[in-house]
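Q: Here's a chain of 341 amino acids. Please give me its 3D structure as tokens.
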Amino acid sequence: MSDMDWHTKVPVECIDCGHEVVTDFDSIRARKTLTCGSCGTSFHIFDVYDMYYEEEPLVKNCIDFILKYVNQPYKIESNDNTSREAVEEFLTKIGFAKLSERMFNDLVKYGDSYLLIRRDHDGKEIVELEPLEPKAMHIVLGEEIRRGIGWTGEREILEFVRKTEQGEDRLKPADVVHIKKREYTRYEPYGESVIRITLKYIHYLRTSGAGARAAGAQWWINYLENWICLGIGVPPILLESNLTKFPKAIVEMASISFIGTINRLHWSTRPLARQVFSEIIKSRNLPEVPRLEWQSLNPTKILRESGFNFMDEMKLWKQLLDLHIITEEEYREAISRYKED
């Protein structure tokens, strides 16, 4: 494979026969169907993501680690209590705490989560958000959108098409909430799976790993595994079975890096407020669209669950208080980060 091919071509495996199928990042972003030249099987890139998640323990461990921490408690923020209570009531009614598990699962594995908006018989009130299978969804795009005198690169969404056993359902943009994981500043109609950036490394681990082990080339295995972890967004050290054998500061720094992965996923959920909350508020003639805020993940939570304690840190802060170096308020603020959530 030439240098140019290395940067543009992406080898994956046929989900049926395991034969190498070469695609590229542009085709993946466009959700183009893949076809195996050996057995003729056609499949979706999401089928590859599923296969790697199910068959590669490292990929599964990374994704499960993200899913363990991403679905943090949420709260609805608004300066208007009536608006806030209306959205809180709706989210409780539809079981949003459980729905968000599916939403984040799809967002992490596939880069896209789709929620179908169901309304009452009069079409006035949203009564349910139904998760749709990302693999079955296709976006039909229109013209590029112009804002003021500038072109944004964003394309108008004409409709969402859902493939079913009976054929296709054509859904209006107003009836679908599309939450996508973004890694680019430029516009992309679809999101990006955490697995996408690691596809090459996973492929080479699967195809050359056994030979490298037999040849004693553990460095090659380590290289591939490190890039898989970092690409997915989980520092490799956090997957160790006994983190307490490492310095606490090193684990804390890795945790802070990992929290960036979690925060980016939380930011992706903003379309909920923009589309669903705004419709609820408008239908009830309320004054303000509330915000969905996820509880920030504290690195001490990860350390505590990994077996670390913070007695030494808390003693140090108490000594500083006793020496009148810090105030009582500064002391309480300092030790609050070490307490249970």
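Q: Can you summarize the key feature?
A: The two ends are 50 Å apart (CA to CA).
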